[in-house]
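Problem 12. The chain below contains 96 residues. Write out its predicted structure in token notation.
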Amino acid sequence: MQSTTGVRTAVTQYSTARLAQMAGQRRRNARHFSGALRADQRVRRAAEKVDANLEVMKRERLRDHRGKALGMTCLTISSVVVAIALLITFFVIRFT
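Solution.
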């Protein structure tokens, strides 16, 4: 009976030591995981800031382009009108 009690005690001590070791490893893993989550949150926040900045830049550039395009359209239309007016003036002078 004495030897089985010794074996049980040894098994219990071994199991306790293994459980303590596993608990320590679990704590280390949890710390590492929380650090990785914090790093991921920083990356996610930076990505959100970049996306927001991209949207603002797109809107600003589109606004600037729209203004330039409108100016160019007006210039083109006025150039065509002037050319037509010159042709009409030429034909009026030539044929009258």
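Discussion. The first helix runs from residue 2 to 95. Students who got a different answer should revisit the alignment rule from Section 12.3.
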